[in-house]
């Protein structure tokens, strides 16, 4: 776009800063629905505000509209290319051109449109199960026929509106209800397809241009090393270049198995990262009745003895159940320097946790305190016992014993764990004991799942304990911002505390 070409709908031209001044603010008011229950579907959940789980929205003019789910048309005369595609009238340009990391922003521009031409941009990708994710947004080109998403706003009527340069990434939603995008094979990229369609009609307009771009999980030179050492079942990711590197162990929640997407992305930023499975994987126990901290101690020792891992301590990154395991490791094990948790309780959850002659019972979860919405979707916000008020605090992890630096990341609208409460109460609890090793990051509008940047919003899923469809929480736009903020904070935290002074 020419530096002085105005973005339609804005009162000032796009100047060198790449920003525009909007002439009016979007209407974000919502209407309450009478009654105590809410109409819950995959699409309505994604468009509800963080405090409206029991309301049904009356959609305002600038709110996202339902996605168009027609199959993308195949027009043989329109060529497609990785990073660049053109027709007689339009060209798509990505930055980077053909391949980017999944957690990095992607620049998108369209050239060769008519002056102030109205177009719809549609992004789509399929996961490894073949499920389709889609987002679309409406735009109007500048006077010179160029459309730069970093300078021009999305207009009302799409999956999002306003100046959101990466909106077509984080607004992707599954065609199949309640489906989550999780990369299984991190050695292969997701392939993002972008279509430019003429007009703003309800149905797909004429295809003007089409391009594909790879969203990768491994930077060139990152090494993926399967680990089968003693009892340990894991994958180690080593950054490119000469080590040793600061080491981090990543543990996920109660879904079980081996999840590599966070660990692989973290390795791109200079960390030797071990994605650790702890049940329901290969010859590990499939349905545990208890967990033993000695297994996790073995993983710590493996990292400390590795020639490519910098000592004298390592970091832990845990989500949900993986978070309370990380806190227990910091309380009982040596050589843990920094622990970052995402939406985790500070009490032991799900299974008894044993270490030597000690046993921490799990927090009690009582389904009778759950609230049931339409479509049999359940809110378990009040089901988990408060670890600070349980008799004798028996399930509370003795976090005051931890010498590690602690970072609690909490979604303010988490409906699985009351993460904000757990984080703020732990902060006060440790401060009262004179501990200065804790910090919190509270994310407004974020639910239970805070994934790496540009992951699709996932507000409804399966409860990790009750295995029923459950409200996870969150609001689309706030979630997208929380992803970026949390991911950058995690990297800065580990760089600060795991690298030499």
TrEMBL record:
Transmembrane segments: none annotated. Pfam families: BAAT_C, Bile_Hydr_Trans. Residues 292-499 form the BAAT/Acyl-CoA thioester hydrolase C-terminal domain. Residues 18-31 have a biased composition (Polar residues). The active site is at residues 320, 414, 448. Belongs to the C/M/P thioester hydrolase family. Keywords: Fatty acid metabolism, Lipid metabolism. GO terms for molecular function: fatty acyl-CoA hydrolase activity. Residues 1-35 are annotated as: Disordered. InterPro entries: AB_hydrolase_fold (IPR029058), Acyl-CoA_thioEstase_long-chain (IPR016662), BAAT_C (IPR014940), Thio_Ohase/aa_AcTrfase (IPR006862), Thio_Ohase/BAAT_N (IPR042490). This is Acyl-coenzyme A thioesterase 5-like. GO terms for biological process: acyl-CoA metabolic process; fatty acid metabolic process. Gene3D superfamilies: Acyl-CoA thioester hydrolase/BAAT N-terminal domain (2.60.40.2240), alpha/beta hydrolase (3.40.50.1820).
């Amino acid at each position: 776009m020419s530096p002085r070409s105005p973005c339609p709908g804005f009162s000032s031209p796009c100047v060198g800063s790449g920003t525009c001044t909007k002439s009016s603010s979007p209407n974000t008011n919502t209407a309450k629905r009478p009654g105590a229950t809410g109409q819950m579907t995959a699409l309505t959940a994604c468009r509800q505000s963080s405090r409206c789980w029991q309301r049904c929205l009356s959609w305002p003019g600038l709110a996202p509209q339902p996605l168009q789910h027609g199959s993308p048309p195949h027009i043989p005369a329109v060529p497609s290319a990785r990073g660049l595609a053109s027709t007689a009238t339009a060209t798509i340009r990505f930055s980077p051109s053909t391949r980017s990391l999944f957690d990095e922003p992607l620049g998108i521009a369209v050239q060769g449109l008519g002056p102030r031409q109205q177009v719809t941009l549609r992004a789509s990708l399929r996961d490894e199960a073949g499920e389709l994710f889609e987002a679309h947004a409406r735009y109007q080109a500048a006077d010179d026929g160029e459309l730069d998403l970093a300078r021009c706003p999305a207009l009302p009527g799409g999956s999002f509106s306003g100046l959101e340069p990466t909106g077509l990434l984080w607004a992707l939603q599954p065609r199949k209800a309640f489906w989550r995008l999780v990369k299984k094979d991190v050695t292969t990229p997701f392939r993002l397809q972008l279509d430019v369609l003429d007009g703003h009609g309800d149905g797909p307009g004429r295809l003007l241009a089409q391009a594909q771009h790879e969203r990768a999980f491994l930077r060139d030179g990152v090494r993926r090393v399967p680990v089968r050492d003693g009892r340990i079942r894991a994958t180690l990711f080593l950054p490119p270049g000469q080590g040793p590197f600061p080491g981090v162990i990543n543990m996920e929640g109660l879904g079980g198995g081996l999840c590599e997407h966070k660990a692989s992305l973290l390795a791109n930023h200079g960390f030797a990262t071990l994605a650790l499975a702890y049940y329901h994987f290969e010859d590990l126990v499939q349905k545990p009745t208890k967990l033993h901290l000695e297994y996790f101690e073995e993983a710590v020792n493996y990292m400390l003895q590795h020639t490519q891992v910098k000592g004298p301590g390592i970091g832990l990154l845990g989500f949900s159940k993986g978070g309370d395991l990380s806190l227990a490791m910091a309380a009982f094990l040596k050589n843990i320097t920094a622990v970052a948790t995402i939406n985790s309780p500070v009490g032991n959850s799900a299974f008894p946790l044993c270490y030597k002659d000690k046993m921490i019972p799990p927090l009690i979860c009582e389904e009778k305190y759950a609230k049931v919405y339409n479509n049999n979707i359940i809110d378990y916000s009040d089901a988990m016992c408060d670890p600070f008020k349980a008799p004798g605090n028996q399930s509370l992890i003795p976090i005051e014993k931890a010498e590690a630096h602690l970072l609690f990341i909490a979604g303010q609208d988490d409906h699985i764990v009351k993460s904000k409460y757990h984080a703020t109460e732990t902060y006060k609890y440790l401060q009262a004991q004179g501990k200065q090793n804790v910090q919190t990051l509270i994310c407004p509008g974020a639910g239970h799942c805070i994934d790496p940047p540009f992951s699709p919003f996932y507000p409804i899923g399966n409860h990790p304990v009750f295995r029923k469809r459950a409200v996870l929480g969150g609001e689309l736009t706030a979630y997208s911002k929380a992803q970026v903020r949390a991911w950058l904070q995690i990297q800065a935290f580990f760089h600060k505390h795991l690298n030499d002074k």
